[in-house]
């Protein structure tokens, strides 16, 4: 092949790739914390984009002027990054099709409102809220689904001009074709058909001039060249309205995929009554991002094998949007906690785990340097399910002046137990250091000298060092806290029970 033919071939291949490039988007409203349902939607968009070699767009839908706040947008972005979701275009990284905040796209929307006005697809509706409410109540009383009657649909120019001259407020409504059935293939739900008579003429611009969701989302998705709209099934009823707008504006319709709703363990829709349901709350509760990514990926999708502990790369490799289940996904909090424990115990490098754990240590008032935190984690990590468990598990490494449990007191109030601790102190009082192996050697000597073994040997020492009858490996505790603190605790116990 000559160089000219090769260059032409490369151009053809590049053009085909550009034409078939998957472009998806996640478009949250900055009106609160990132809910698990929205996080799952963001995750599936991200995974699908990476699986197909496509692009993910982050778009901020901040047209709700009352509830949208900059701090929520910042938290959303922070939580998405924490989860390990990366986008190719967005308000913080820019891109070819910006702006990526709806509040900055008003002029664009106005152009398309004007286009719909010129083509007769929308009309002014002057009906008052009271009139609309009366219509709604009448429809319900007659057993009909509430929908706009079309009262203003065919007003004459003369009547419109009169109402405008009187300063009557109005909204722009989309002129829905009577009796049409909107059919589309959903990548998850299959073939879907919805009769437009179920909803009637709908508002696309409010009386204050602000455009509504169903209109702006179409304009944004079309101009940002979104090929696949992956979102929760609560948006399914919006889809026929949006398809009508796509057609009216001459835009190509994207593929749609509506994710199943997420239920709590009681099979009701996941909500605050099920406990923490925001990503931020799980972060604060000591969950690690890898476990959250893994756990969210399993809400409505399952890998082909039995293994559910999968890295981000493995999930991306296996995932296909058409494998997502149609049935509701049940959020199993216990399973996520178990999964989190697996990552803490087995998957994370100890230095990485320590960096993540430092804020928790400090939050519990446990002050030390990085290397000490690391030593503690090396001992206790096998007993952790979340980083919040550090508060109890790490306590013996930081608190010297603790209370003795009622069960523990019995071992030191016993004459034999007290003698075990007393003799133990005699063996360590002149030491400058102590290791786990040296501790074990000393306890073997005690066993021979005092004729005591099992819990009668170890429990008194454990209680003297921790106040409890169960918990951390005592030999490792002794090595980590050092011999001086061991001496202090033993002396304290001897004084308390002497």
Automatic annotation (TrEMBL):
Pfam families: Anticodon_2, tRNA-synt_1c
Motif 'HIGH' region, chain ranges: 28-38
Protein name from the UniProt record: Glutamate--tRNA ligase
Oligomeric and partner information: Monomer.
Originating species: Persephonella atlantica
Keywords: Aminoacyl-tRNA synthetase, ATP-binding, Cytoplasm, Ligase, Nucleotide-binding, Protein biosynthesis
Keyword Cell inner membrane among record annotations: no
Keyword hit for Protein biosynthesis: yes
Record-listed ATP binding positions: 272
InterPro entries tied to this protein: aa-tRNA-synth_I_cd-bd, aa-tRNA-synth_I_codon-bd_sub2, aa-tRNA-synth_I_CS, aa_tRNA-synth_I_cd-bd_sf, Glu-tRNA-ligase_bac/mito, Glu-tRNA-synth_I_codon-bd_sub1, Glu/Gln-tRNA-synth, Glu/Gln-tRNA-synth_Ib_cat-dom
PANTHER family assigned to the protein according to its UniProt record, in alphabetical order: GLUTAMATE--TRNA LIGASE, GLUTAMATE--TRNA LIGASE, MITOCHONDRIAL-RELATED
């Amino acid at each position: 092949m000559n160089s000219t033919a090769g260059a032409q071939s490369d151009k053809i291949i590049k053009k085909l790739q550009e034409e078939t490039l998957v472009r998806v988007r996640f478009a949250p409203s900055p009106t609160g914390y990132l809910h698990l349902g929205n996080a799952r939607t963001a995750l599936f968009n991200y995974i699908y984009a990476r699986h197909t070699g496509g692009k993910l767009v982050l778009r901020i839908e901040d047209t709700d002027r009352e509830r949208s706040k900059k701090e929520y947008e910042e938290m959303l972005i922070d939580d998405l990054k924490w989860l390990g979701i990366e986008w190719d275009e967005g308000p913080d990284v820019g891109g070819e099709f910006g702006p990526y905040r709806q509040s900055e796209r008003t002029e664009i929307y106005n152009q398309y409102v004007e286009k719909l006005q010129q083509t007769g697809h929308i009309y002014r509706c002057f009906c008052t809220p009271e009139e609309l409410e009366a219509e709604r109540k009448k429809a319900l009383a007659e057993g009909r689904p509430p929908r706009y009657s079309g009262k203003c649909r065919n007003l004459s120019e003369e009547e419109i001009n009169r109402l405008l001259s009187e300063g009557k407020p109005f909204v722009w409504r989309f002129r829905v074709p009577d009796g049409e059935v909107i059919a589309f293939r959903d990548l998850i739900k299959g073939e879907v058909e919805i009769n437009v008579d179920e909803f009637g003429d709908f508002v696309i611009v409010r009386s204050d001039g602000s455009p509504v969701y169903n209109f702006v989302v179409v304009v944004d998705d079309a101009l940002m060249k979104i090929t696949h709209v992956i979102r929760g099934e609560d948006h399914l009823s919006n889809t026929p309205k949006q398809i009508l707008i796509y057609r009216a504006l001459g835009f190509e319709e994207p593929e749609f995929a509506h994710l199943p709703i997420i239920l709590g363990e009681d099979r009701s829709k996941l909500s605050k009554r099920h406990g923490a349901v925001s990503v931020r709350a799980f972060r604060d509760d000591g969950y690690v991002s890898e476990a959250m990514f893994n756990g969210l990926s399993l809400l409505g999708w399952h890998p082909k094998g039995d293994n559910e502990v999968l890295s981000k790369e493995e999930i991306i490799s296996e995932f296909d949007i058409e494998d997502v289940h149609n049935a509701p996904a049940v959020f199993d909090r216990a399973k996520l906690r178990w999964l989190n424990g697996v990552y803490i115990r087995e998957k994370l490098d100890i230095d990485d785990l320590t960096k993540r754990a430092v804020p928790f240590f400090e939050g519990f008032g446990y002050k030390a340097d990085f290397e000490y935190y690391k030593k503690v984690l090396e001992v206790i990590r096998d007993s952790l399910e979340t980083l919040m468990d550090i508060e109890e598990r790490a306590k013996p490494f930081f608190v010297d002046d603790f209370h003795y449990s009622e069960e523990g007191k019995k071992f030191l109030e016993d004459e034999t137990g007290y003698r075990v601790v007393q003799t133990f102190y005699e063996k360590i009082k002149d030491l400058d250091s102590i290791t786990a192996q040296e501790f074990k050697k000393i306890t073997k000597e005690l066993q021979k000298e005092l004729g005591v073994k099992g819990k009668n040997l170890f429990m008194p020492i454990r209680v003297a060092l921790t106040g409890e009858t169960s918990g951390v490996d005592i030999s490792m505790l002794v090595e980590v806290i050092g011999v001086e603190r061991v001496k202090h605790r033993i002396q304290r116990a001897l004084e308390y029970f002497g």
